[in-house]
Amino acid sequence: MPYPFDREYMQLALLAGLVVGATAPLIGVYLVQRRLSLLGDGIGHLAFAGVAAGVLADVWPVWTALVVAVVGALSIELLRGRKLASGDLALAIFFYGGIAGGVVLAGAGHALNASLFTYLFGSLLTVDSGDVALVIGIGLAVIATVALLGAALFASALDEEWSRVAGLPVGVLNAVFAVLTAVTIVAAMRVVGILLVSALMVVPVAGAQVIARSQRGVLGWSVAIGMLSVVVGLGVARQWGLAPGGTIVLVAVATFALVAAASRVPVVLR
């Protein structure tokens, strides 16, 4: 491949990044519809606690992060669904609990903080073939599930009461969506890092909503902006020696700014 993707490590990073760049905004569309844009942050902090637990227990942190993130996502949905706490309150409880648990576990191990940096801030340029295979597997599972249940997920996101009247299994759909969100965050944490994963899920959707005029259009444009941000962000990071995760998110933010500004041009001209 041509520069800047002429090296094997860049090709592996590009492949993993493109999968995450497609799946993160795909899930983000439904997060925005449910007015839960910060859910990614909450589950991400739970994943941080899982990573810290994995490093402390000397097991692969991805597995412990996946278990903690899935359990946490289902717990948030349980609290919200049973009206034990509102959506933002349930999210806040696990948000702060996750980061507090991560801090405690990080302090319990020697030299543990250095090991957490790759998950907090992303380490896309160090992914190996095993990491890429895991990301692709998770990405394919997410895409297949959305393709199968997309219409039902969209209906339950718009109006849960109507969906129940229509006979849709809203509780099951919400649980499935919670799990999808958790596994997507775990897949993305090596790409952009736990601290920025929510941005990659939401910012491309914000740009897509400016351009698109339908749900299908929002899905398509969100994925396109997410993947474009990965390609451009990786190239810029290689050229100037920048952190790839942060650069990818900044490209997504810049894309939103450009799209938003361009959408105002006809109004100004009138």
Structure write-up:
The protein has eleven helices and no strands. The protein has helices spanning 8-33, 39-57, 61-81, 87-108, 112-120, 129-158, 160-165, 170-188, 197-211, 215-240, 244-269. Helix 1 (8-33) packs antiparallel against helix 10 (215-240), helix 2 packs antiparallel against helix 3 and helix 3 (61-81) packs antiparallel against helix 8.
Per DSSP, the total helix count is 11
Question: Main sheet?
Answer: none
What is the CATH architecture annotation? Orthogonal Bundle
Spans of at least 5 consecutive residues with low confidence: none
C-alpha Rg, in Å? 19 Å
Shape: globular
Strand residues, percent: under 5%
Task: Briefly say what this structure is.
It is built from eleven helices and no strands. It is mostly helical and 270 residues long.
Notable characteristics:
ABC transporter involved in vitamin B12 uptake, BtuC, mainly alpha, single chain, 270 residues
Q: How would the blueprint of this fold be written?
A:
Elements: H1 8-33, H2 39-57, H3 61-81, H4 87-108, H5 112-120, H6 129-158, H7 160-165, H8 170-188, H9 197-211, H10 215-240, H11 244-269
Helix pairs in contact: 1-6, 1-8, 1-9, 1-10, 2-3, 2-4, 2-5, 2-8, 2-9, 3-4, 3-8, 6-8, 9-10, 9-11, 10-11
